[in-house]
Amino acid sequence: MLDPKHPSTPPKLLNTFRSLARTLTIVENDLPGADELLKKLTFNKTNPIIGITGPPGAGKSTLVNSLIERLLKDGNKIAVLAIDPTSPFNFGSLLGDRIRMASHFNSPNVFIRSLATRGSLGGLSAKTIEMADVLRAADFDYILIETVGVGQSEIEIAGLADVTLVVLVPESGDEIQHIKSGLMEIADAFIINKADRADADAFANNLKKIIGQKKGEQPPVFKTIASQANGINEVATFIKSTTNTLHKRHELLMTEKAYKLIQQRLMRHIDKKKLQHDITEALTDKKFNLYSFVDTYV
Question: Which of 30, 45, 161, 263 is the most exposed place for a label (fewest CB within 10 A)?
Answer without folding.
Answer: 45
